[in-house]
Amino acid sequence: MDNEEILDDIGALVEEERALRQRTGGLLPEERARLAALEVRLDQCWDLLRQRRAKEEFGEDPDTATLRPAAEVESYRN
Predict the structure, then answer these.
(1) What segment(s) does the record annotate as region Disordered (predicted)?
(2) I want to staple 51 with a disulfide (CB 3.0 to 4.6 A). Which of 1, 5, 17, 65 is the partner?
(3) pLDDT tens string for the chain (78 positions)?
């Protein structure tokens, strides 16, 4: 997956997230679960993109960047 593909994925995930957040009358339990999953996936995609850009900046192969597990990416906030 190259940077443009990652950015395309991020765009699609953001659109879906916005649509869920703009719903009136509250979200169903499965929609709340989907929103939480979207937030995690977005964090993973941004992390992957940052990894790729850093590798490119320092002359390394960006294709060696890997999607980190959700637990690892989400622990960055703490």
Answers:
(1) 56-78
(2) 65
(3) 899 999 999 999 999 999 999 988 889 999 999 999 999 999 999 999 999 999 999 999 999 999 999 999 988 765
